[in-house]
Amino acid sequence: MSEESQIFIAKSTVKSADLEHRRKINFNIGKYNAAVPKGKEQFANVSLARERAKNVKWRAIETLDKQLEDFELHFTKRGGKVIWAENGDQAIEEIIKICAAKNCKTLVKSKSMVTEEIHLNDALEKNGIESVETDLGEYIQQLDGEAPYHIVTPAMHKSKEDVAKLFNKKLGTSISLTPEELTQVARGILREKYVQAEVGVTGANFIISDIGGIAVTENEGNARLSCAFPKTHIVVVGIEKMIPSLTDLGLFWPLLSTFGTGQKITVYNTIITGPRQENESDGPEEMYVILLDNGRTNILKNPKQRESLYCIRCGACLNACPIYKNIGGHAYGATYSGPIGSIITPHLQGMEEYKHLSFASSLCGNCTEVCAVKINLHELLLENRHESVEAGLVSFSEKMAWKLWRLASLKRGLMNAGGGNLKNKLVNGMFKGWNKNRSDLDFSQKTFNQQWKERFKN
């Protein structure tokens, strides 16, 4: 058992027993569940919209090399600069170089899971650069020294009372402030940072091939400020975020907002195609886009797992997953949690260390039912399990247990042999690993086959 697996079991054991934590999560997901059906009303046929989106992503991923080259061609024509980063270290190195050239002391950063993936804030801090999260949820998490809890709503696990206590401790505000007043406090602090910052960093919800642009979706306007106020704008984005055409946004923006938060459309939707042009009054003087691989081509070269790259990070599968709703986001020990995280993390960070995430699923299929682009998530979880076994990442005792089970299940005489008490003693006594975190198996005295024969005399 890997160290990451042991940590996961320990954290999930604690969180699953924390009823207050579960109450907060269910409360917030309950609000999400109430909003999503209303958002879906904008679609004449939501299933068809999802199918079309899946087809667009299929085309983008199947021709990803060409799409990325076309993006670079169009983006650089407008004065932008493209940097290809094979891994997180290369991306960090390039960002530090840019910051050093700009004599950067303060950097403002909008919400971005990919920068969490490469641990950008830690790297900047080590190099003496203040990195300030400007999304309210991310700012709360940064104050608390925690990673984001959810792909879309980073502080989902905190109540308004928790945030008031945190601001009181870190910022000296009154513990009785309302959510609106707490927001104004954060706004006042962050507005000063936008003016001070030499560099702004954002992610991108989509990369648009045919115009050489990036699309950013947000509800607070902090991403617009992060890329417009500082003289230098750096975009860090995973290569899988590609869509072929600007016109595709007419489908993807409503899907992302509805399945992400239940909105018909997100408040701020921005397309950026490069640095400030001669006839433009605002925007950065320089703009860089860092196209990050960091294990994504491992998924791309896997014909079965490639489908997971269609994900638009709406977070719907997390909100639907019974496992996530009980153990929360931090228990996963990875940047991407929930069903989609359990699928891609073993390929991004190593199957041996993270294969356990694919087994932390009930395989109920609810994640597949709610996916905005119809990714067969539960099937990919099963495929991960299969790949881990094929790679020999299971113990000898586990392999032998399943071989014995297969042998017995294919022989009716063996299945019928012995009574329930004997089977209980045999299975519960031999397979200690199985019932370590489960109740004992309780076999009936007679198998279904035996009962059928007795009833119908066959």
Descriptive notes:
With 458 residues, the chain is of the alpha/beta class. Among the domains are: 42-294, NagB/RpiA/CoA transferase-like (Rossmann fold); 401-456, no CATH class. It contains 24 helices and ten strands. The chain has helices at 3-16, 19-40, 46-62, 64-77, 88-101, 113-117, 120-126, 136-144, 160-171, 179-196, 222-228, 249-261, 296-300, 316-320, 324-327, 338-349, 351-354, 356-359, 366-370, 377-390, 396-409, 412-416, 420-430, 448-456, and strands spanning 81-85, 106-109, 130-133, 199-202, 206-208, 213-218, 232-238, 242-243, 268-272, 286-292. It is globular.
Count of separate DSSP helical elements: 24
Q: What separation lies between the terminal Cα atoms?
A: 47 Å
Alpha-beta content class:
alpha/beta
Principal-axis shape equals globular
User: Which radius of gyration do the C-alpha atoms yield?
Assistant: 25 Å
Annotated CATH homologous superfamily of the domain at 42-294: NagB/RpiA/CoA transferase-like
Number of DSSP-assigned strands? 10
| CATH level-1 class of the domain at 42-294 | Alpha Beta
Largest sheet: 6 strands, parallel
Can you give the helix content as a percent range? 40-55%
* CATH hierarchy: architecture of the domain at 42-294: 3-Layer(aba) Sandwich
What percent of residues are in strands?
Answer: 5-15%
Regions with little confidence, pLDDT below 50 for 5+ residues: none
Strand order of the largest sheet: 1-10-7-4-2-3
According to CATH, the fold-level topology of the domain at 42-294 is Rossmann fold
- Average pLDDT, all residues: 95
